[in-house]
Amino acid sequence: MGSYNYPKLGSDALDNLVQRLRLYKPPPPLHQIPESVSHEIQYSNGKSVSNIPESDYHHPEKLKRAAVLVCIFQGNNGDLRVILTKRSSTLSSHSGEVALPGGKREESDADDVETALREAKEEIGLDPSLVNVVTVLEPISTKRRMIVVPVVGILSDAKAFSPSPCADEVEAIFDAPLEMFLKDENRWAEEKEWMGEKYLLQYFDYEVENKKYVIWALTAGILINVASIVYQRPPAFLELRPKFWDIAISRDIPKL
To answer: 179 to each of 1, 12, 131, how far by Cα in Å?
Structure first.
């Protein structure tokens, strides 16, 4: 993996958080696909997953790959907050949606960390030297055959960050309290079904500076997971994640 500058942290709370996250060990994937098995996954209801070619299972490098940066900092009142963006309404995909800084991996990127940091710099003007990358979480598989890797970093000096949104990609930059993704407040869920299995898409309504945002789907799922790890407790609601999110290829789980 690449070499990154780790700035000195500004508080005991952040120091403790960094140490805890660096010791975090991802659990085994719920639906792991070893290289030697068939390209179909059999669920208890008899349904199977076969929408990804077998060659992609055996060669995960063929799958499209992206990384997002979950950048955590300490707010003025001592709470932990996360940086989010509202995507430009002119983009061809996911226009106007709330997202974490990030994007597709480029051939020149050394690893997922470099992808996340590069994209964050391009999208919101966040200097990589300000971010202390502490862990890389389990990859998430999307319906569009994209592997998304959450990279968790700490911004110890929030005042050193001067947001500079890329006008072509980002309409707004804001932050939200990380703990809100564990609370059953300003939250609602939509029931969906995939391959005969029901799941819930989580939605969080958030308002700041007279602007309203909806944080949902994959972004919400990643933040629920990160908040659960950081605060060491499960959400106060039924999550019921989509099973296809947790399909991971055995040799594709990154290590920091």
So the answer is: 30, 19, 20
Q: What is the pLDDT along the chain (256 residues), one digit of tens a residue?
A: 333 344 444 567 788 889 889 988 877 655 444 333 333 433 334 444 444 444 444 455 567 899 999 999 999 888 999 999 998 767 656 557 999 999 999 999 999 999 999 999 999 999 999 999 999 999 998 887 789 999 999 999 999 999 999 988 899 999 999 999 999 999 999 999 988 999 999 999 999 999 999 999 999 999 999 999 999 999 999 999 998 888 654 344 444 5
Nearest by Cα to 1 from 136, 154, 162: 136
pTM: 0.82
* Contact of 175 with 94, CB cutoff 8 Å: no
Token pair belonging to 18: 């960094």
Gap between the Cα atoms of 230 and 23, Å rounded = 12
Q: Are 101 and 126 in contact (CB under 8 A)?
A: yes
Question: What's the N-to-C CA distance of the chain in angstroms?
Answer: 7
Residue 131: CB atoms within 10 A of its CB come to 28
Contact 102, 119 (CB under 8 A): yes
Q: For the stretch 137-155, what's the b/e string if a residue is b when 16 or more beta carbons lie within 10 angstroms of its beta carbon? A: bbbbbeeeeebbbbbbbbb
C-alpha to C-alpha distance for 197 and 160, rounded to whole angstroms: 46
